[in-house]
Design a protein that fits this description.
Length: 285
């Protein structure tokens, strides 16, 4: 038998809800649950903590529809605070939520996992990758030109990333924490994007670069996806590699490609209509 936490009536086990109160039935009316955020103990029938309003059972919540809806609107949700950063794996996307904002890293589920902080919004070292108030790694200049190193919170290197010499050369040598050659990031022949090729082996990851046009500004967005679970790099070194690709091969900051329109332009468009606007544009060329 299970009971209703509202009216405290007992009902057969096959029922899920109380027919009188429509509340979900529970096995033990006196059972409690501790809030994963603040630790406050509440009755198990409650869904949210009365102290901090956090979900008492966040793992039971299907975030799929909310994530899909947010992405469709061009928005991003943050990873729940009770989950570790990049718990789903090192696959990630480096982007800006707004044209003049800083960079953030989104994980494989599309949630914001961490943010990058530096002297400004430029993708130039030194940069710190932060999550939940702690630093996951730092991107620092390396001892040679056109190279960066990722340093973990313990001060030890996670990986080193060295771009090849020529200005048109898009290859990056990837070394592990001991500075031993681990892989090379190189353009995919006759295609878009880059392949991460293990030294003396196969392709172990893919990296894509996409130009994002936000009406007035254009910036490049970088994504990395491992194609094997046996990476010769630490997971955070793979994440840092995506950041290094942006630093060494991408735009340091968004480029303005159009001037903002003012109210007078909108009023003129309303007056001319689409045909009149095409005629005016033809004369101005």
């Amino acid at each position: 038998m299970r009971a209703c936490p509202s009216c405290r009536r007992a009902w057969p086990d096959e029922r899920e809800t109380c027919p009188r109160c429509l509340a979900s039935l529970v096995e033990d009316l006196d059972a409690t649950i501790a809030c994963p955020k603040c630790g406050l103990v509440s009755p198990v029938r409650m869904q949210s903590c009365p102290g901090c309003l956090a979900l008492l059972r966040p793992d039971d919540v299907d975030r799929g529809p909310d994530i899909a809806r947010s992405l469709a609107l061009g928005l991003r949700m943050h990873r729940p605070a009770n989950e570790m950063a990049f718990a789903d794996g090192p696959g990630c996307t480096l982007l800006r939520l707004m044209p003049r904002a800083g960079l953030v890293l989104c994980g494989m589920a599309g949630l914001i996992e961490a943010n990058l902080s530096g002297p400004g919004i430029q993708a130039r070292p030194p940069l710190a990758c932060n999550a939940d108030g702690r630093t996951l790694f730092r991107i620092e200049p390396y001892a040679v030109e056109r190279a960066v190193v990722a340093i973990g919170p313990d001060g030890a290197p996670l990986g080193t990333y060295l771009r090849h010499g020529g200005p048109l050369d898009q290859r990056i040598d990837v070394r592990d924490e001991t500075s031993a050659p681990a892989a090379r990031l190189e353009p995919v022949p006759h295609g878009s994007g880059f392949g991460l090729v293990e030294t003396g082996g196969d392709v172990i990851g893919l990296v894509t670069r996409t130009d994002v046009d936000d009406e007035l500004w254009v910036d490049d967005q970088w994504s990395g996806t491992p194609t094997t679970v046996d990476l010769p790099l630490q997971p955070l070194a793979f994440v840092a590699m995506v950041v290094a690709a942006k630093v060494l091969l991408g735009r340091p900051e968004p480029v303005q490609v159009r001037q903002p329109r003012d109210e007078a332009d909108d009023q003129l468009d309303d007056l001319l209509g689409p045909i009149g606007r095409r005629i005016i544009d033809g004369f101005s060329r």
